[in-house]
Amino acid sequence: MLRIEAMKNLTVTIENRAPAGYAGLRKAVAETLISGQRKLEALKVQIYWQTGKLISDYLERNPGDADYGNSVIERLAADLEIERTVLYRIGKFYRLFPNSATWHYLTWSHYRALLVIENAGSAQAVPLFQFCLWKKGKR
What we know:
With 139 residues, the protein is mainly α. It has helices spanning 2-9, 22-61, 66-80, 84-96, 108-115, 125-137. It has 2 domains: 2-104, no CATH class; 105-139.
């Protein structure tokens, strides 16, 4: 289902004919390339959140000690040839932002900056979160 939704989110309208002038070219590139990049970034956040949910749900249904969770991440990383730090980061992202309504405001780079803060609900995180929202609005 995620693949179907992903394809819907990535729909970009492209003009079949060349723009008449530079202004038209600039507008067409902005509408296709820039818009497409933003959609891809939003999709990346969505995919990482969904992946974090899958991992967290699996670990919750298969409780063990902390070493078991670490071994699952290590095994996934080896089997999928993905850096284990990416999987740990994705899992932490889901745990810190379990409500899917909150994660569509920022890019993955913004969330990575927030993930280094031990307690994302802390007073230390609020100014960083506000800065990320401000920076996103400046685009």
